[in-house]
């Protein structure tokens, strides 16, 4: 039998007022009991303190212990102690993504079809506005489908309150701000900004559409490559190879940026430029973190010539 004392890391959680207490695992040894088993035992005693809300660490350490690690792996013996911290209410990553991407899918049709409500007049949409509307709707429909059927997440949940912060980027910037700007009279079929200019030239629009479609399909391809690296229900990590990955660690971000560059170039909208700058900065942070993680985990096996996100530059 293995017994482990569970104490609070700092202030005792309100959802687990009975700490400290001891969990026991009859007929098991320390190399058989996982951190996930301990979390389950805590959740059994305190039902509101579910496993994804818990952060377990060694006494005197703030480092989170991996759920699939055994007590032996982390150096805890029979009669040892672990500390638990309440991460607060959690929400699944999949749900967060669904909420984020749903915003523009609702907001853009409202601005596109109810022009009198927002601009005080009916607007004859230009070909450019129709293209941009299609690009944005297809982009976020694609993201929703990828979330449902392609993406596999390393972590099951995130803090509930983060959904509001994360969603603001899409709902306010690529949603309200961008929709209000690009469906306005400035971009209408009768506007001097459009009429008789390159933005009214079908060849310009078709060229942009071709590059945008290339970027979106390439982005999808890289997501499928990443999915194939991780079997269902695992956290397996492997070095990705193939289309895009020969040049950068995160080609999915590069192709996403390229798709939005098309929208910026076609419209010349300063709102689109701001969204692109904010999004590219955030993706750059994520890409650098993943690039460093790849190099740390795989060492000399990881291709040295790969850049982080932008081929040959970064």
Describe it for me?
Helix 5 runs antiparallel to helix 8 (270-298) and helix 6 (202-229) packs antiparallel against helix 7. The strands form two sheets. Strands 2-1-4-3 form a four-stranded mixed sheet, with helices on one face. A two-stranded antiparallel ribbon has the order 5-6. It contains eight helices and six strands; from the N terminus they run E-E-H-E-E-E-H-H-H-E-H-H-H-H. The protein folds into two domains: 2-87, Phosphatidylinositol 3-kinase Catalytic Subunit, Chain A, domain 1 (Ubiquitin-like (UB roll), Roll); 91-301, no CATH class. It is an alpha+beta fold.
Computed over alpha carbons, the radius of gyration is: 25 Å
How many DSSP E strands?
A: 6
β-strand percent reads 5-15%
* Distance between the ends: 53 Å
GO molecular function: very-long-chain enoyl-CoA reductase activity
Domain 3-oxo-5-alpha-steroid 4-dehydrogenase C-terminal: 157-314
Pathway: Lipid metabolism; fatty acid biosynthesis
Organism: Piloderma croceum (strain F 1598)
């Amino acid at each position: 039998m293995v017994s482990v004392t569970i104490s609070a890391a700092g202030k005792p959680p309100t959802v687990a007022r009975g700490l400290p207490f001891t969990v026991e695992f009859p007929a098991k040894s320390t190399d058989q009991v996982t951190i996930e088993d301990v979390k389950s035992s805590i959740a059994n005693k305190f039902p509101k303190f579910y496993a994804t809300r818990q952060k377990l660490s060694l006494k005197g350490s703030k480092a989170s212990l991996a759920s699939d690690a055994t007590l032996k792996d982390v150096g805890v013996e029979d009669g040892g102690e672990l500390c638990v911290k309440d991460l607060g209410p959690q929400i699944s990553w999949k749900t967060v993504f669904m909420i984020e991407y749903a915003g523009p899918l609702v907001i853009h049709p409202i601005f596109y079809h109810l022009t009198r409500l927002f601009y005080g007049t009916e607007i004859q949409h230009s070909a450019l506005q129709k293209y941009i509307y299609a690009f944005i709707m297809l982009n976020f429909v694609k993201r929703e489908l990828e979330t449902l059927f392609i993406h596999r997440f390393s972590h099951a949940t995130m803090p509930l309150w983060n959904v509001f912060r994360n969603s603001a980027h899409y709902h306010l910037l690529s949603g309200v701000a961008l929709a209000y700007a690009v469906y306005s009279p400035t971009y209408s079929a009768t506007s001097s900004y459009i009429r008789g200019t390159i933005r009214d030239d079908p060849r310009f629009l078709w060229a942009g559409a071709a590059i945008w479609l290339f970027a979106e399909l390439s982005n999808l391809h890289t997501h499928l490559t990443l999915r194939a690296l991780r079997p269902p229900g695992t956290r397996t990590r492997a070095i990705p190879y193939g289309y895009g990955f020969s040049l950068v660690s995160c080609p999915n971000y590069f192709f996403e940026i390229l798709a939005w560059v098309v929208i910026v170039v076609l419209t010349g909208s300063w709102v689109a430029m701001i969204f692109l700058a904010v999004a590219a900065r955030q993706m750059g942070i994520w890409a650098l973190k993943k690039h460093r993680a790849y190099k740390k985990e795989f060492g000399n096996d990881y291709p040295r010539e790969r850049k982080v996100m932008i081929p040959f530059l970064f």
